[in-house]
Amino acid sequence: MIHSLVQTDDVTRLLDTRHGDYAAACSLDSKHPPYVYDTFALRDADGHAPVVDRWPYFRSRASRDAVARGRPVPVTSCWNGMVAMDAAPFYDRARPLAFRAVADDLARAHVEASECCLVHADNPLSRTKGVFVNPNVRVGYNESTYEEMTRFRERSWLSVGSIARGTWQNRIVRWFAPVRAKDGDVRRRWAAWNSENPGREEIGQSCLVDEMQVLMWNGWAHV
Fold first, then answer.
1. What's the pTM value of the predicted model, to 2 decimals?
2. How many CB atoms lie under 10 A from the CB of residue 217?
3. Nearest alpha-carbon partner for 78 in 96, 60, 95
4. Phi/psi at 78 (nearest 5 deg)?
5. Are the C-beta atoms of residues 141 and 29 closer than 8 Å to each other?
6. What separation in angstroms does the CA of 25 have from each of 109, 129, 203, 205?
7. Which of 136, 115, 144, 117 shows the shortest CA–CA distance to 28?
8. Distance between CA atoms of 191 and 111, rounded to whole angstroms?
């Protein structure tokens, strides 16, 4: 699915991630470089949301190292403007993969999740073939952003100063904020729901966030 400004080469490059060996592969997206945009669905190799929204983004060492080397980045979930998926699970006759939301009674506890994250949690191929972000496929939500992000294809599009700032910002947050307070709140709400609902489960626990989505006259909003 494509939501942002791309060219044909971006699509073919994404499809060729790991020579097509993946459950899903995503681009990197931005509205305001150097900040990545779709952090709602993005989770690193250990299931954590991005530490910060600028390079190298992730808490997981495996994910950070892959970003630094310009290689496909192992993650547990992504969307980020453009995504390619192995379609086989969607055609499984016994149990077809489908997009979904969290249970209503869990959502009422002010716990939400992106359907674009939950689909990876539900996908059996995520565990066998993996989910990856291709840092060499970069898309933007307007022409100027796209041009800035695609100045260089096979090497970093960021300045040395931006890389240095991002590295230290990421490091400081990991050192001094190992677990955010709101992450602990979400886990407690999930645990309470889980104890009250024996036999039910939410396998997309890493997707859960401290939010509620409500319908508005012009769409929806986070509260």
1. 0.90
2. 4
3. 60
4. -165, 165
5. yes
6. 32, 11, 21, 21
7. 136
8. 12
